[in-house]
Amino acid sequence: VLDDNKRLAYRKLIEENREKRRKDEMQKSLVQKPEPTSEEWELIQVVTEAHVATNAQGSHWKQKRKFLPEDIGQAPLVNAPEGGKVDLEAFSQFTKIITPAITRVVDFAKKLPIV
């Protein structure tokens, strides 16, 4: 039979060993990352090519913002169907910027394989 001090020391030792084992297992799982399979490499290549074809076109596709946040609300507002107000100039500029971005995302998605 162990006295209280020895029992506490033994429990502490057990807990330290458990913690060390957890850390060792975590390290082992991080180190042993498998290489992608040939199918995964092919998929990576297809996705990369799709990205390059649709998004990596350099900066010429980027549009400069024609309005700043502080300009919003300076144009006349019209009533929206939901009862709110809409700044038509800001909305028009927003659609000019977002539409090409959405088109690029759709073009990218079309180039991806269906799995």
From TrEMBL:
<dbReference type="GO" id="GO:0090575">
    <property type="term" value="C:RNA polymerase II transcription regulator complex"/>
</dbReference>
<keyword id="KW-0539">Nucleus</keyword>
<keyword id="KW-0479">Metal-binding</keyword>
<dbReference type="GO" id="GO:0004879">
    <property type="term" value="F:nuclear receptor activity"/>
</dbReference>
<dbReference type="InterPro" id="IPR000536">
    <property type="entry name" value="Nucl_hrmn_rcpt_lig-bd"/>
</dbReference>
<dbReference type="GO" id="GO:0000978">
    <property type="term" value="F:RNA polymerase II cis-regulatory region sequence-specific DNA binding"/>
</dbReference>
<dbReference type="GO" id="GO:0008270">
    <property type="term" value="F:zinc ion binding"/>
</dbReference>
<keyword id="KW-0804">Transcription</keyword>
<keyword id="KW-0863">Zinc-finger</keyword>
<feature type="domain" description="NR LBD">
    <location>
        <begin position="39"/>
        <end position="115"/>
    </location>
</feature>
<dbReference type="InterPro" id="IPR050234">
    <property type="entry name" value="Nuclear_hormone_rcpt_NR1"/>
</dbReference>
<dbReference type="GO" id="GO:0030154">
    <property type="term" value="P:cell differentiation"/>
</dbReference>
<dbReference type="GO" id="GO:0048384">
    <property type="term" value="P:retinoic acid receptor signaling pathway"/>
</dbReference>
<dbReference type="GO" id="GO:0000122">
    <property type="term" value="P:negative regulation of transcription by RNA polymerase II"/>
</dbReference>
<keyword id="KW-0862">Zinc</keyword>
<dbReference type="GO" id="GO:0002154">
    <property type="term" value="P:thyroid hormone receptor signaling pathway"/>
</dbReference>
<dbReference type="GO" id="GO:0045944">
    <property type="term" value="P:positive regulation of transcription by RNA polymerase II"/>
</dbReference>
<protein>
    <submittedName>
        <fullName>Thyroid hormone receptor beta</fullName>
    </submittedName>
</protein>
<keyword id="KW-0805">Transcription regulation</keyword>
<dbReference type="InterPro" id="IPR001728">
    <property type="entry name" value="ThyrH_rcpt"/>
</dbReference>
<dbReference type="InterPro" id="IPR035500">
    <property type="entry name" value="NHR-like_dom_sf"/>
</dbReference>
<keyword id="KW-0675">Receptor</keyword>
<keyword id="KW-0238">DNA-binding</keyword>
